[in-house]
Amino acid sequence: PAPDLTQFVRDLASSTLTVRELLDRLADTALDLVHAEGSCVLEFKGETFVFVAPSGSARAFDGREFRLNDDPSLFREALTSRHPVWTNVALNTRQIAVVPIIVEDAVSGLLVCVNSAFGAFCPVDIDLLGHLGDHGALVLRSQRLVQRAELAAIDARHRAEDAAMAAHRNAVLARTARVLADSVTRERVYDGL
User: Fold this and answer.
1) 41, 109 in Cβ contact below 8 A?
2) Which tens digits make up the pLDDT trace of 135-183?
3) Where are the strands (E) in the chain, listed by range?
4) Whole-number Å distance between alpha carbons of 146 and 187
């Protein structure tokens, strides 16, 4: 398992992935890391989750949304505690592990794994998934910072272009003023009035 996590971190550091590619990679790595039957990343939007990166048996849910109900659940517990949670006795599955993905101090999604091939998740699995989620969150944060920097660079370029145009207009006005000042005498101005 540790080599999978190490390889994931190396791959992320050396490539530029889209957000979707990153989330797909996160789910696939989680699946392999803890030998799960299925895994996915759930993107959190208000009180709704969307399956954005299913892997393994979770692929059937790609793009589906579900509302987070008010009843206690592992999903709600992961959101409120901001820590990985798991159970080895869950409805419709044998086991489930849920890891919050925290970007810029907000839970932006959940990494979910179901049905360990070993019959149960253990604390080591949860620690590995927690580290995986943390690394994914760092890359997501880095991508957001790069996007902000790119937007700031575009804004700075537009402001520089605007300043250059204003400087050009001012130069034209100054030159026109000099030409007028040199060609018109005071007497001619008064005589023309």
Assistant:
1) yes
2) 888 877 777 777 777 788 888 888 888 888 888 888 888 877 776 676 6
3) 36-45, 48-51, 55-56, 65-67, 85-87, 96-103, 106-116
4) 63
Give CA–CA dist 154/163, Å, rounded: 14
Quote the CA–CA distance of 178 and 181 in Å, as a whole number. 5
Confidence of residue 102 (pLDDT cuts 50, 70, 90): very high
| Higher pLDDT pick, 133 / 94 | 133
* pLDDT for the residue 189: 47
State residue 193's pLDDT score. 41
Helices (H) and strands (E) in the chain, counts: 5, 7
The pLDDT of residue 5 is 66
CA terminus-to-terminus distance, the chain: 93
Alpha-carbon distance 180 to 57, whole Å? 81
Task: Kindly state the tokens that stand for 11.
Answer: 């791959």
